[in-house]
Design goal:
The termini are far apart. Helix content is 23%, strand content 29%. 15% of the residues are buried. The protein has a single domain, classed as TTHA1013/TTHA0281-like (2-Layer Sandwich), CATH 3.30.2390.10. The protein is built from 1 helix and 4 strands, in the order βββαβ. Strand 1 and strand 2 form a beta hairpin.
């Protein structure tokens, strides 16, 4: 198993209505998905491919942690 999990950041792009994922741990990673489940499936393919393309050392299993951020607004009714 790969040592520590790789960190992938995903932020909601309200204008494009997609999740955008990038990572400092995976050189060249920049992708998007309509929902988190689809994005995760895409990352499961892209991360190993990009690590191989960058000749990164490691095992066959590559754990990654998806850190998400989405800003929303809640409306108060008693103001």
């Amino acid at each position: 198993m790969y040592g520590k999990p790789l960190f992938v950041h995903a932020e909601w792009d309200e204008a494009a209505r997609v999740w955008v994922a990038t990572s400092d741990d995976v050189p060249g990673l920049a992708t998007e998905g309509d929902n988190l489940e689809g994005l995760i499936e895409k990352l499961k393919v892209m991360i190993p491919e990009l690590l191989d393309a960058n000749n990164a050392k490691g095992e066959s299993e590559v754990p990654f942690e998806l850190l998400t951020r989405r800003f929303e607004i809640a409306q108060r009714t008693n103001c």
